[in-house]
Amino acid sequence: EDVRRAVDGWEPRILSDECGDALWRFQRGRIPMQVRRIRDVDLSIARPGRDPVAVGRRRSAEPGRPVVVTGDPGELALYFFERRNHAVVELTGDADGVAEVRSATFGL
After folding, report:
1. Which end of the chain has the least Cβ crowding within 10 Å, N or C?
2. Which residue has the higher pLDDT, 29 or 72?
3. Can you say whether the dihedral through the CA atoms of 57, 58, 62, 67 is positive or negative?
4. CA–CA separation, 71 vs 67, rounded Å?
5. Rounded distance, CA 43 to CA 34, Å?
6. Is 80 part of any domain?
7. How many domains does the chain divide into?
8. CA distance 68 to 105
9. In DSSP terms, which residues pair with 43 in a beta bridge?
10. 10: three-class secondary structure by DSSP
């Protein structure tokens, strides 16, 4: 996918429903491990037109800044595997929380 998107005029790959569903299930379990360093954000992911799913919570009793990262499963995979420049996702929510997510380093 990196090679496809390294040229001008690239378009996001359209995944089959089966592939998208499998990738979504995988990510729901993996992303919480990748975002554990984000401390002050209540982070959720969402597929377009669907309800968000929580993947990261602030580590205190106080609520964190809510942020939702929305995109197709393949795009979310690119975003959370540090391919942000080419991932077609939308970040919404608290402005400071969005900035924190955008600048975060994800990893296991």
Report:
1. C
2. 72
3. negative
4. 13
5. 12
6. yes
7. 1
8. 17
9. 56, 67
10. coil
Structural domain for 44, as ranges? 4-103
Position 61 scores a pLDDT of 65
Residue 86 located in a structural domain: yes
Element (H, E) at 46: strand 41-46
Residue listed under structure tokens 């995944």: 15
Mean pLDDT, to the nearest integer, of 61-70? 84
Describe the chain by its helix, strand, coil percentages, rounded to 5.
40, 20, 45
Confidence of residue 50 (pLDDT cuts 50, 70, 90): very high
The tokens describing 75, both together, are 């795009």
Q: Which residue has the tokens 């970040």?
A: 91
Q: Is residue 108 part of a domain?
A: no
Tell me which of 46 and 29 has the higher pLDDT.
46
